[in-house]
Write a structure and sequence with these properties.
This protein has two domains: 6-124, Aminotransferase class 4, branched-chain amino acid transferase, N-terminal domain (D-amino Acid Aminotransferase, Chain A, domain 1, 2-Layer Sandwich); 132-296, Alpha-Beta Barrel (D-amino Acid Aminotransferase, Chain A, domain 2), CATH 3.20.10.10. It is 28% helix and 26% strand. The protein is α+β, with helices and mostly antiparallel strands. The protein has eight helices and 16 strands. Strand 12, helix 6 and strand 13 form a beta-alpha-beta unit. The longest helix is centred in the N-terminal third of the chain and has 15 residues, at 76-90. The chain has helices at 32-36, 54-67, 76-90, 132-137, 165-176, 219-230, 283-296, 299-304, and strands at 12-15, 18-21, 39-41, 44-47, 50-51, 95-103, 117-124, 139-143, 181-185, 191-194, 198-203, 206-210, 235-238, 258-263, 267-274, 277-278.
Length: 305
Amino acid sequence: MASVPFDQMDGFIWMNGEFVKWTDAKIHVLTHGLHYASAVFEGERAYGGEIFKLTDHSERLHESARLLGFKIPYSVAEIDDACRTLLKKQGFQDAYVRPIAWRGSEQMGVSAQNSRINCAIAIWQWPSYFDPAQKLKGIRLDLAEWRRPDPRTAPSKSKAAGLYMICTMSKHAAEAKGYADAMMLDWRGQVAEATGANIFFVKDGKIHTPTPDCFLDGITRRTVIGLAKDRGFEVIERTIMPEELEAIMPEELEGFQQCFLTGTAAEVTPVSEIGPSRFEVGEIAKTLMNDYSAAVQPKHAIAAE
């Protein structure tokens, strides 16, 4: 993570169509997005000077805003171009990219139709989301107290800022106990995801993952499913109950052998523990970790090897 506060870093931020000095990219304390969580964002990574699945992310940013009832005043192509230009302006090859859009300070209250829709992009260097040494051994997950809400109570298909409040609370609680992260259930008690990454399990050579009906169907998730299918692995999207994770089960419900997370920040990260359940860092998880690393490398970098 950054050694200085994020508001004191060097460089530039693209904000409402202009490149401004990093320390000058400010909003007012009475901004609607701050008070009422009317903000959507993306998390992207650049590898070798190219942003992986950039247009997919920009399109999802627009869709997230639509689900929250506002329209971003910059097209997908304009946001793509701003991200690429800012990456070069920052002088980074490998970096984290954060576009965000939010309602401004023109109107304060639950109703804010007259507020300006703002958009900004920041890019900074960010190492592995999880400790690299722990990642190779498999990270440990706690069982979160908070659950993913019913999609009738929250816009679960939007990458909306407000949906991450319970993720922060769950991750803080897990880290206080010595875990790297936490696995969240949904409102029905079914396995959902980690606090900022999708989750997969392996049993008898088949890959199982929860159906994303109340949490984000991650771009990395879809990428890894594609990589797994390219390898000939069967990928089963279905309801997964927490009881299936247990190591000691009746024969018909014998537990999973492997587990891994996927996400822009997490990439592909093996899991060794979830509460009382234990998993091996097996060949399928290792293979997909390597395949994803190869997939994100720019074509010109691969050709030069």
